[in-house]
Structures are given as C-alpha cells and as structure tokens.
Specification:
Strand order of the largest sheet of chain A: 1-2-6-7-10-15-16-17
Oligomer: heterodimer
Number of strands of chain A: 17
Helix content of chain A: 25-40%
Largest sheet of chain B: 2 strands, antiparallel
Number of helices of chain B: 1
Strand content of chain A: 25-35%
C-alpha cells in the first residue's frame, strides 16, 4: 500500500493506493500536480484563476476548461437537489461576512472550540433574490464550452469544487488498484481494499480532532464532513463561520457543530453535509432519512451525537456493514 | 280421677334397639370411607396442618400432597444429562485503525 500527503485548496490532502507496483507509485506522484492544476482553475482566492477571470467578466462570454465546466454543472445540480440551500451565489455574502481570504493565510483563524452562534433578528433577513441563481440568466453554451454571467452575479464553487476534485482523482487512480482520496476531509473510495474488506474511516470529534467519535466502514462511495468548528472568525466582535444560510445570507444558526454524510459520490456527500448542518439536528436527520442513498452522523454543540436511520449500515460498532 | 299413663309405642327392648342403631351408623361410616378411598386422589391437594408454634409465632406448615401419577416416589428417574459440546467462542475482533479521518475541511 502506498500513500501520499500534501496540501492543496487550503486543505490537507491524502491519496492511498492499495498496490505496491512502481506504476502505482508513479501515478500517485502526479496527484499533487492534478490538484494544483484544478486549484488554479477553480479557486476564488487566486487572482489568475479561471473562476476569478469569469467573475471579473460579467456579461461576456468566457470559454472555460472541462474542470470548470463540470464543476459548474455540479453546482447547478447541487442547488436543485438542496432546494437552494447549497448555492454558488454566496460569494458576495461570504466576503461581506469576512471570508475574503483563504484560511491558509488568515492570522485570526480558529481559537475557541465553540464560538456562540449569533442569533439574528428576523428584521435582518437579506433579500433572498440576491442569493439565488437564476440559471437561465447564466448563459452556458455546451458546444463552445463558454459561460456568460449576468451583471452582478459572481460565483464561489467552494466545497463542490473540492468534492469534484476528490471524485476526479479517484477516477484517474482506480485503474492502478483500490484507492482512497481524502481532499480536506471529503473522502472517496474506488471500491473495497484488495482483500475485499471495507476502508475504515474515522470520524473526528470536532471538539478534539485527535479523538475519534466513530468508525465508518466504506466499501464504495464517499463521506464528507461539513462543520463550523474550524473555518470561523470574528468580525466586529461577533463570531462568524463559513456555512452561510442562503435564506438569510448569514452564517447558519444551527445547533449542529459538524455533519458527516455518506453518499455515492463526494459531491453528493458534500452537498448533503451542508444541507444537514444548515437545517439543524431534527430537520437535518429527517432530510437524510428521506434519501435512501445517504446516511449521516451529526455532532451537536452540546456534545450529543445523532445518527440517521441508515448510518448503522456503515458503523463498525454495529457489526454488519454494506 | 287419675291421668292415663301414656306409653310410647314400640318401646319394647331399648338396649337391643340401641345396639342396632349403633351398628347401622358404624356400617354407614365404614362404607362411606371405602367409597372415598376408591376415588382419584387430587394431585394438587395441599393441606394445612395445625400451626407449629415457633417462638410464639404461628407459622403455617404446608404439606404438598401432589404426586406424579403412576410414578412411585422411590423410583423417580433422573432426567438424562444433556450432551454438552465444547464451543470455542470466536476471538473478539479488534477495532481496525482508520486509514484517514473525515473532518470539516482544514
């Protein structure tokens, strides 16, 4: 078994190939270059990225590369599947809230473990129209592979881009053996290990990262965690975090500290984890239970751990897992 | 004028009559006991004998009269011993170490 760790997209990355061949070693060495290339295209923090160029060119038809095109398609799918709770249209709201630079360079990142959730008065609700995507207004030409954004619309591809990157890496590596890719906590596997056993994947305690609160056994698919335990900062004395609720344009007010979701792909898991966190414990579990392909584990700020109905199929503790 | 003496009818030989009555009563009693003995003994008859005084506290003494039908007490057969087989419990499976941890992106 061979493994490679590196940083990209502001996150810790890991690729494990269950193979000892030299070919596996060679392909594994290319993974950091793939991620660097994708970050160059998809990051809003890079002044020269494709995404930044697109955001700076409203009402102009801009040709985009295959990765950007595919991630835009996924962003459109995610907004539809989440009924608008996961949307790429929150860039302005994120910058207004203070998430205007990568956490790799922030000096004020992450001090208290449980910053208080700031409750907003109902009168402070933002005009939701500014936060929704009218995909008909975004001109996407599949033949020319070009995109034209309307005036006033800028995109942030965030977690969907990371989920896509993990999925794409799995596709490129799977021919060399069973593979696991961990892109900043978004974990995808190509299939079971060579001996047929599932990949054991720990769920970190958001209150103490070196502690594991559960162990999941994954033979296929992906798992992603969305949380307000790390990417948080203070703005004018008020704690903010990066999971915005499109219904308010502000950090989601939720008792969920972190949401971990298993799904067939990383981008589905990423989308579902965000939705679950935004909806909160009770509604988040109900949303997951309506979707047979998803299973979730929620850690609340009071320390409670909640499980959706199908999570027992993946927990090592439950014995039999699929 | 003197009252006529009233004599009980049939009162001739009182000792003989008494003997007859006694014999009849005894015969009836013995016959009744014989009938009772021939009836099936109830299996769950519990009689309570006179309380036994123990330290001034009367404690009921229960005597069970239940007997298995047709099985003389001296010949109660022991139930056959079940055949036991040695079962080796599977060793406890240790929790595997995780290949990685999922957490919010950092």
């Amino acid at each position: 078994m061979q493994r490679l760790e590196f940083r990209a997209m502001g996150s810790h990355m890991l690729a494990i190939l269950d193979s000892d061949t030299s070919e596996a070693a060679d392909i594994l060495s290319l993974v950091p270059h793939w991620f660097a290339d994708w970050e160059q295209r998809l990051s809003r923090f890079r002044a020269d990225s494709e995404l930044t160029q697109l955001n700076r060119s409203p009402e102009r038809r801009v040709p985009v590369s295959t990765p950007v095109w595919e991630v835009l398609q996924l962003a459109r799918w995610a907004e539809h599947a989440s009924a608008g709770l996961v949307t790429p249209m929150l860039l302005e709201a994120l910058e207004t809230a203070g998430y205007d630079r990568s956490f790799d360079v922030r000096a004020d990142a992450c001090t208290p473990l449980h910053p208080p959730v700031t409750r907003q008065s109902p009168a402070a609700l933002t005009d939701r129209r500014a936060l929704t995507v009218d995909w008909h207004a975004i001109d996407m030409d599949p033949h020319a592979r070009s995109v034209r954004l309307p005036a006033g619309k800028r995109l942030d591809l965030g977690g969907i881009a990371k989920g896509w990157a993990a999925h794409r890496a799995i596709q490129l590596l799977a021919a060399y053996g069973p593979v696991l890719v961990d892109a900043g906590g978004d974990v995808a596997v190509s299939g079971p290990l060579s001996d047929g056993s599932p990949w054991p994947i720990g769920v970190a305690d958001p209150a103490a990262l070196d502690r594991q609160i559960d162990l999941l056994m994954l033979s296929a698919g992906a798992v992603a965690t969305s949380g307000r335990d790390y990417r948080r900062w203070q703005q004018n004395g008020v704690w903010k975090h990066h999971i915005l609720d499109p219904r308010t344009g502000r950090p989601a007010e939720t008792e969920v500290l972190s949401a971990t979701v298993i799904a067939p792909t990383t981008y589905e898991a990423e989308m579902a984890a965000k939705v679950t966190l935004i909806l909160g414990g009770r509604d988040g579990l109900a949303w997951l239970d309506k979707r047979p392909a998803y299973a979730g584990l929620l850690v609340l700020e009071d320390g409670q751990v909640l499980y959706s109905l199908r999570m027992q199929d993946y927990r090592w503790e439950c014995g039999e897992y699929i | 004028m003197a009252q006529p003496r009233i004599r009980k009818p049939g009162a001739t030989g009182a000792p003989g009559m008494k003997l007859l009555i006694t014999a009849a009563a005894l015969a009836t009693t013995l016959g009744g006991w014989a009938v009772l003995a021939r009836q099936e003994t109830p299996t769950d008859l519990v009689t309570v004998s006179a309380p036994v005084v123990a330290g001034g506290v009367y404690a009921p003494v229960l005597r069970s009269m239940s007997l298995p039908e047709g099985a003389p007490p001296a010949q109660v057969q022991a139930a056959p011993q079940p055949s036991l087989r040695v079962v080796n419990a599977p060793p406890a499976v240790a929790q595997p170490a995780p290949m990685t941890m999922t957490r919010s992106s950092r």
